[in-house]
Each structure stands twice: as C-alpha cells, then as structure tokens.
Amino acid sequence: MALDRRLNAYRDDLADKALEGQVTATRFTHGEPGRIAVPVTGLRPKPEATTGIDTELLLGEDVNVFDRAAGWAWVQAQSDGYVGYLPETALAMGTPLPSHHVIVPRTFLYPGPDLRFPVSAALSMGSRLTVVGEAETRGTRYLLLADGRAVVANHCLPLGAYAADDYVAIAVRFIETPYLWGGRSGFGIDCSGLVQLALQMTGRKAPRDSDMQALNLGAAISRDELRRGDLVFWKGHAGIMVDDRTLLHANGHTMTVALEDFEAAVKRIGWLYEMPTGYRRPVA
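The chain above was modelled as a monomer; its predicted structure follows.
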C-alpha cells in the first residue's frame, strides 16, 4: 500500500531519511529546521502557484525543509506532519524560538506600540511571535518584537497558556469567517481547518483533513449520543456540535463559518455528500 503523500515526504529523487526502507528514492535526507516568516502561506501538492492549496501554515510555525528549488521549498509541518510546497520567501532559518501565540481570531502588527500607527501586517489566531519586551501607550499594553513591531498584549498569551479549555467556545468565534478551501486561519478557513485550529488553541492536537479526523480523532460514538463538542463527518466534510441540535461548520453553502440546525443540515448536505459517515468525541 502506498504511503499517504500528505503525511510522508517522498519523491523519486528525494525522500525523508525516516522513510528509508519503505520507499524508493535516489537520495534520503533528514532535512533542516525552518520557520514560517509570513503571516499565512499556502502549502501545495506541487510547486506551482496555479495549483490549489492543501492547507496553510501560520507565522512562527515550524517545518522541516527537505528541498529548495526554483523559488519553492518542499517541507513538512512539524505540528501535524503535512507535506507540501510553499514559496521559499515564506521561510526563515535559524530564527529565535517563538515565545507567544495569538489567541484572538485576527489581530494587527504595528510598526511600534501605538494603535494609531499604520498597520504592518494582519495575523491569525495561532500565529507565533518572539517577544522581547513590552510597552504601554495611552493605557494600551503592547508586546514588542525584535524588529520594533508591536501587537496588542491582550491578544496574545505565552506559548503553553490558553484562553479557554472548551474548544467549541474557540470555534464559535470564527462565525462569519469566509470559507476557504484549504484555509486554516482567521482570514479564511475550511471545515477541518476549523476543527484543527480550535482544538489546537486549547492545547490539543488534531489531524488536518476531515478523513484523517474521522479515523483518528478521539473516539467513535453513535448519533444518539451527540452533545456539545462532538464531531459529525460526511465524506469530505466535518462539523462541530454546539449542542445536541446545532451544527457549527465552515461550509460551501453559506461560504462562511455558520450555525445550522443539525437535522436540516443532514437533509441539505445529503444530496451531495449522502448521509453522515460517522460521529466522534474528540475531547473526553
């Protein structure tokens, strides 16, 4: 059986050293550590800008870099093992370890500690920052980065600290966020990206894609057991139960993250994806 190319780095000419003996390749390498240096970057199955994204990586997330060529880097995300290509300009090597992460759906980086300054960049929840100091301007506290840029302090927490334990409470903060195939940020997100990011922001890991989540995330339950926090899976789709009657999901019907009556959603989705394929409880 062929290895899943989404989670295993192998090509005819090059492969992850960890796969030696499992795949055939001209050369094997351990790769080298890298870190995402832009707010959001797409990860693609091919080194082509016209190819759709599989997922996204956020500022400060770690990757293993196996190859660089023609402006592209072939990498594997350390957080969930996803493999793909991203622009080489999205990478930094040898940067200091992040110390904080963004805990709100979206925030801004400023050129200095003042909300009246023109914005330098917009950041998503889950972005990681290396903080070197603090400042206060007109009663608002800021965290400072090494290059002098600043972010509002109460939009961040130290890595390892989380604003909530209830991942559903995190997920509902994304209501009306645009749907984006492969999206995994506060600027655009897909169904499984919403599940993964919300769980991540409570300190729990989750696979990236809905088929992976349907097989490996938490424990299987029956439809009659559904309660807040449980997951519903269709072929190619995932949703979160807010309560025993209401589904939260990033979906192509509204093209947003939206709340929907669960039974109505089952009927509406059925014509395209058939009936739900399974139910799981990701958090004990």
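The chain has three domains: 15-92, 100-158, 167-281.
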